């Protein structure tokens, strides 16, 4: 056996030496290629940042990349002007919409997911399949009916209406994600608690919820980004006084070209918090994506 | 804990019955702890039978387990907690359930409890998602005002109206192009990142646009796609690449004088000499029509020496401030460098050269004979200014480009996760057997990854069908009809000034119908994974 195997191994070794040389060269090329790709991917955002930091006259007369030849042109004027013009209130609206919508989805979905994962009831599988089916329902379907409903309830244009809409449309994904995580919790842990006679509320709050922290973090960051970055829902349901940043900026798009000094810093302000969160929690973000790449 | 239980239980009879059914089962040995609760008692009398039957299938029964943990203290308080919610008639039920639990010794709360856990979610889903679907179907059968029944008229107009047909055409382009490119790029990046240093940093960079709102991405790409190459980075790159590969000099507007003495005339955009010219006699091609500033740094024009070969001078025959002799080279006049010059004989170009900075040119090695010297049109066209990304022709590809920028990282991360799950042995075995890297990729990596690739692909299709923000933000108002997609058109006709919620509802139902196959795909995938 061994004697037969040896010549078979000798050949690949030689090939490997050759292969390694090729790999070195090829690897270098790959590295260069990927660095170029990364630059290509960074360039647009970098452009936005630089444009947001340049005065109107500079932006009108030369490209942002001239920064590298004369870096003295940077200024924070655009940002201070933007904040002075009341953009701060739409930033605050974004927070007022995003934080409750995220927390509510986590709470409500965690309860439902717990029921789907650990309480047996008739029709459970069917109801859960309906939840999965709802994962891909486009938001557009609800715009007209819910606008009517909100008019009837008197909450059209309010932050409450926007939050409830986001919670409802965040639920299918949230339930799906958490339920799939909950079923992975060892049965023994729950049964031990049940044997101790702990009521379901306590099991949910003290056993499952803490164990599910990674999944909840994933869901939290996903829902946060989804609501923070949404434009369509607030376009329909948020009044001007309640409008978040996305809608405020959208209303500026019509004059694009003459108001880059508003749009660029506004867009950058709107993306800086998601970006920070993303870098801080990217591990959870990826996990959430892997768990629920169906939306 | 008791408070938390009491809260929801007080909200409805069904829930309190759930508590009741589990209550007595925990305390068969000590019914005296049962403290009567009026609300629960009322509901229990009505819901007694179902509560008992529920406990047949799912029941929490410390009675079975008492031999194991009868000495554990938590059982006491916990049981008491349940007991507070137990109805007075619990003793009777307790007997029945105690018998039942012997038959089905399984741990678990009552299904009634599930209702409590599910209620908020199901209410929201019913009111905000299910009801709107039903309402939209109904609403789509009525006209814009909503009071005249039009049957399928709205759906008919989706497929006959030219503007909605454009949206459908655009959505088809999107679905055919974007998911494939995103998946392919994701695959390429995922495979290549495995072979480079700082791959984590690289992944973060590519993945970062996922965190950016589509509105911000739209603003970013409006800047990228600016027409002026001095502002938009896309055209800046394209023009500089273009200029690197084509002759740099261009003199738009330069032309010969239109009088009889001029030695050259304009002919179809090009400039040609009037007379046949021979080697040895320098050719003079005076031009006008240029702003002096464009040539102010050019050296003075020189007369080409005669001698060997066909030679001559192209220059700007204008003296600043006036003066000078027409059709003669004056000392202050500037040469035009970098102009392409052709020697034409019998209609065919025999030789091509370029003028030097002082405007002189020379064809050497040209066969004797008489020629016409021609300055082709390319010398006088306006310089290349990049592409009109945001014009009607390129708008959809341009927006798809932005979409790819946003989503390629998503595909890459998903595929990379799938890649890391591939058994390394399979790849190594193939390499040892002498397979090339391409064969390994094509025959092993891709087939093993195909489930992940399919998921990414399908996710992208679903996403692309709903694409809204990027089109809305990137396409300028005047071009939006050409860039329009279904999701955007739905908003436009219903809220963005269209005022036709009948058509809007029909469009949203159409959108829903388009994603139904993927709904089924998801359900199938889930059942397979669970099964």
Biggest interface between protein chains, with counts per chain?
A-B, 113 and 118 residues
Poorly predicted runs of chain B: 1-105
CATH architecture of the largest domain in chain A: Orthogonal Bundle
The structural domain count of chain A equals: 2
Compute the average pLDDT of chain B. Answer: 77
CATH architecture classification name of the largest domain in chain B:
Orthogonal Bundle
CATH topology (fold) name of the largest domain in chain B: MetI-like fold
Helix content of chain A: over 70%
- Report the span from N to C terminus of chain A: 53 Å
CATH class of the largest domain in chain B: Mainly Alpha
| Strand content range of chain A | under 5%
Care to count the β-strands of chain B? Answer: 9
**DSSP helix count of chain A?**
13
Main β-sheet of chain A, in a few words? none
Summed up, the domain count of chain B is 3
- Global Rg of chain B: 41 Å
Assembly status = heterodimer
Alpha-beta content class of chain B? alpha+beta
List low-confidence stretches of chain A. Answer: 1-14
What would you call the shape of chain A?
A: globular
Describe the structure.
Chain A: It is found in: Cell membrane. Chain A: It holds the Pfam family BPD_transp_1. Chain A: Belongs to the binding-protein-dependent transport system permease family. Chain A: This is Carbohydrate ABC transporter membrane protein 2, CUT1 family. The complex is a heterodimer of chains A (295) and B (531). In chain A, helix 3 (77-118) crosses helix 9 (213-229) and helix 4 (124-134) packs across helix 6. Chain A has 2 domains: 2-72, no CATH class; 88-291, Orthogonal Bundle (MetI-like fold). Chain A has helices at residues 2-52, 56-61, 77-118, 124-134, 140-153, 159-182, 187-195, 200-211, 213-229, 232-237, 245-250, 260-280, 282-291. With 295 residues, chain A is an all-alpha fold. Helix content of chain A is 78%, strand content 0%. With 531 residues, chain B is an alpha+beta fold. Chain B is 55% helix and 8% strand. Chain B contains 20 helices and 9 strands. In chain B, helix 2 packs across helix 3. The radius of gyration of chain B is 41 Å and the shape is elongated. Chain B starts with a helix and ends with a helix. The relative contact order of chain B is 0.10. Mean pLDDT of chain B is 77; it is low at 1-105.
């Amino acid at each position: 056996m061994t004697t037969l195997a040896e010549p078979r191994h000798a050949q690949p070794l030689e090939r490997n030496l050759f292969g390694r040389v090729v790999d070195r060269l090829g690897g270098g090329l790959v590295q260069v290629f990927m660095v170029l790709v990364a630059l290509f991917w960074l360039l647009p955002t970098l452009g936005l940042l630089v444009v947001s930091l340049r005065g109107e006259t500079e932006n009108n007369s030369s490209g942002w990349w001239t920064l590298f030849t004369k870096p003295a042109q940077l200024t924070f004027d655009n940002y201070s002007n933007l904040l002075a013009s009341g953009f701060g209130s739409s930033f605050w609206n974004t927070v007022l919409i995003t934080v409750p919508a995220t927390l509510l989805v986590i709470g409500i979905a965690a309860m439902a997911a717990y029921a789907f994962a650990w309480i047996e009831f008739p029709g459970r599988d069917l109801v859960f399949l309906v939840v999965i089916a709802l994962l891909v329902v486009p938001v557009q379907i609800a715009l007209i009916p819910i606008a009517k409903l909100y008019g009837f309830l008197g909450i059209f244009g309010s932050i409450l209406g926007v939050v409830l809409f986001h919670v409802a449309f965040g639920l299918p994904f949230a339930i799906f994600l958490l339920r799939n995580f909950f079923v992975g919790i060892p049965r023994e842990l729950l049964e031990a608690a049940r044997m101790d006679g702990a009521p379901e509320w306590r099991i949910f709050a003290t056993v499952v919820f803490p164990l599910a922290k990674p999944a909840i973090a994933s869901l939290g960051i996903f829902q946060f980004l989804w609501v923070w970055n949404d434009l369509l829902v607030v376009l329909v349901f948020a009044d001007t006084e309640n409008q978040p940043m996305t809608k405020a900026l959208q209303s500026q798009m019509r004059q694009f070209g003459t108001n880059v000094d508003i749009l660029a810093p506004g867009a950058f302000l709107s993306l800086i918090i998601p970006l920070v969160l993303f870098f801080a929690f990217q591990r959870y973000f990826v996990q959430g994506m892997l768990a629920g790449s169906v939306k | 804990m008791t408070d938390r239980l009491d809260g929801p239980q007080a909200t409805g009879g069904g829930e309190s019955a759930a508590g009741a059914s589990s209550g007595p089962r925990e305390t068969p040995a000590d019914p005296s702890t049962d403290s009567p609760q009026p609300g629960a008692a009322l509901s229990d009398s009505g819901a007694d039978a179902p509560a008992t039957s529920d406990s047949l299938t799912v029941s929490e029964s410390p009675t079975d387990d008492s031999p194991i943990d009868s000495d554990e203290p938590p059982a006491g308080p916990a049981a008491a907690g349940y007991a507070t919610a137990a109805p007075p008639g619990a003793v009777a039920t307790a007997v029945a359930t105690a018998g039942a639990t012997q038959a089905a010794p399984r741990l678990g709360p009552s299904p009634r409890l599930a209702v409590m856990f599910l209620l908020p979610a199901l209410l929201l889903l019913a009111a905000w998602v299910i009801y709107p679907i039903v309402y939209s179907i109904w609403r789509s059968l009525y006209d814009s005002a909503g009071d005249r029944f039009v049957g399928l008229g709205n759906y008919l107009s989706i497929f006959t109206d030219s503007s909605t047909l454009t949206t459908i055409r655009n959505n088809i382009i999107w679905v055919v192009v974007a998911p494939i490119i995103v998946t392919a790029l994701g695959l390429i990046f995922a495979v290549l990142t495995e072979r480079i240093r700082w791959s984590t940093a690289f992944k973060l960079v590519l993945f970062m646009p996922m965190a950016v709102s589509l509105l911000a991405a739209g603003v970013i790409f409006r800047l990228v796609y600016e027409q002026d190459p001095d502002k938009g980075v896309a055209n800046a790159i394209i023009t500089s690449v273009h200029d690197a590969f084509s002759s740099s000099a261009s003199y738009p507007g330069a032309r010969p004088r239109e009088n009889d003495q001029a030695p050259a005339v304009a002919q179809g955009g090009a400039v040609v000499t009037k007379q046949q010219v021979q080697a040895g006699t320098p050719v003079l091609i005076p031009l006008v029509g240029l702003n002096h500033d464009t040539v102010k740094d050019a050296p003075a024009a020189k007369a080409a020496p005669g001698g060997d070969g066909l030679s001559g001078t192209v220059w700007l025959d204008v003296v600043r401030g006036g003066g000078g002799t027409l059709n003669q080279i004056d000392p202050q006049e500037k040469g035009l460098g970098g102009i392409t010059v052709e020697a034409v004989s019998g209609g065919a170009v025999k030789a091509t050269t370029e003028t030097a900075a002082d405007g002189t040119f020379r064809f050497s090695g040209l066969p004797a004979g008489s020629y016409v010297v021609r300055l082709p049109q390319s010398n006088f066209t306006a310089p290349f200014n990049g592409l009109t990304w945001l014009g009607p022709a390129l708008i959809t590809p341009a927006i798809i480009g932005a979409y790819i920028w946003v989503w390629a990282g998503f595909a890459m991360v998903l595929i990379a996760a799938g890649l890391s799950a591939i058994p390394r042995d399979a790849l190594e075995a193939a390499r040892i057997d002498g397979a090339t890297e391409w064969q390994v990729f094509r025959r092993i990596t891709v087939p093993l990854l195909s489930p992940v690739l399919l998921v990414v692909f399908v996710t992208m299709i679903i996403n692309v069908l709903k694409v809204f923000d990027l089109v809305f933000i990137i396409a300028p108002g005047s071009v939006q009809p050409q860039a329009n997609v279904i999701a955007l058109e739905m908003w436009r006709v219903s809220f963005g000034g269209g005022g036709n919620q009948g058509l809007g509802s029909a469009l949203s139902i159409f959108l829903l119908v388009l994603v139904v196959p993927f709904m089924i795909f998801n359900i199938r995938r889930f059942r397979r994974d669970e099964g």
